[in-house]
Design a protein that fits this description.
With 322 residues, this protein is an alpha/beta fold. The chain contains ten helices and 14 strands. The longest helix is centred in the N-terminal third of the chain and has 18 residues.
């Protein structure tokens, strides 16, 4: 068994901004694992918010002793981007060896076209309205917030796309005062979900706040171990493979979360179709799918997922998982 990595950069169509900063490209690590004449592939996106960088994650990936399998990997690496790329590459490798798609190996249902949300990047209200107008055929818009203009921004998006279901993501950018001011306004506008309003270390604030709009945990939820402290505080969790540390833990997290009464948003970092492919296997089991990463790229991978507006179609056999 041989493991190798490539560091790839994919230019974005336009600047992507959240409350913590902006990016003009998706910097990803591609893992390839060769064994018995087969090659398995996986992708991860290191995230500074979690103390990750291209350098640190690359080092972590290359530190894994070989040979390794999915079960053993869970005991070697913690949740995060490094484990995700290796875990997904191992599933791809196993699928190729056994001649079975990964969804069958995991006893999941066969993937179907999935409706994905489209993310409106944080910008001026005018620019966010323009973007909402361009995407007003999307059933679900996810709006990045976390600035002093959040009220104007959400009103602008609603004007630009009157019929879309709207979810908002503050990326830990609010205070209690902001929450109490904005939630009644958002309720009237028809916002259906608020993602991570407060910093993860302030989850306790939700204990004493009225939740007239459901709240989703993102930065507060990584793997199964993180769920225990979220019961009673959040209504949804956002499952991202880069946070969970791969498809193996994502399946475990999804099943455990549902048993504990959580609804599921299936999310992503800004990455390529290779990163979306494993996550799409969980789309049938999720309440909201937000796998729009490739839609922001000027150029995706060669064998990419087919997107037709808001529909993400089942993965190509030449991409991953078959």
């Amino acid at each position: 068994m041989l493991l190798d990595i490539d560091i790839d950069s994919f230019e974005l169509k336009h600047k992507f901004t959240i409350s913590r900063g902006s990016k003009n490209s998706a910097e990803v690590i591609t893992v390839s694992i060769k064994d018995s004449g087969f090659i398995g592939l996986g992708e991860c996106v290191p995230y500074k918010r979690y103390g990750e960088s291209i350098e640190s994650v690359s080092k972590e990936i290359l530190s894994v002793p070989l040979p390794v399998n999915n079960e053993k990997l869970q005991t070697i690496l913690k949740h995060g981007a490094a484990r995700n790329a290796i875990d997904c590459a191992l599933w791809d490798l196993q699928a190729k060896k056994e001649g079975k798609p990964v969804w069958k190996l995991l006893n999941l249902t066969e993937p179907k076209p999935a409706i994905t949300a489209y993310t409106i990047s944080l910008a001026t209200p005018e620019k966010m309205m323009q973007e909402a107008k361009k995407k007003n055929n999307f059933p679900i818009l996810k709006v990045k917030l976390g600035s002093k203009y959040d009220e104007q921004c959400i009103k602008a998006v609603r004007e630009g796309s009157p019929n879309a279901r709207i979810i908002v993501d503050a990326n830990e950018g609010w205070t209690i005062e902001t929450y109490n001011y904005l939630v009644p306004i958002f309720k009237k506008i028809g916002v259906e979900l608020i993602e991570q309003p407060f910093p993860s270390y302030q989850d306790h604030l939700l204990e004493r706040l009225e939740r007239t709009i459901p709240i989703c945990a993102d930065e507060s939820c990584h793997d199964v171990e993180s769920l225990e402290n979220l019961v009673g505080l959040y209504d949804f969790i956002n499952i991202k493979l880069d946070k969970a540390g791969g498809l193996t833990e994502a399946v475990n997290l999804l099943n455990t979360a549902k048993k504990n009464g959580f609804k599921i948003m299936l999310g992503c970092m800004v990455g390529t179709s290779l990163a979306m492919a494993p996550a799409l296997l969980l789309s049938n089991l999720s309440d909201i799918v937000d796998l729009d990463g490739p839609l922001f790229l000027k150029q995706d991978r060669k064998n990419h997922i087919e997107y037709k507006d808001f529909l993400a179609f089942p993965i190509s056999k030449r991409l991953w998982g078959y």
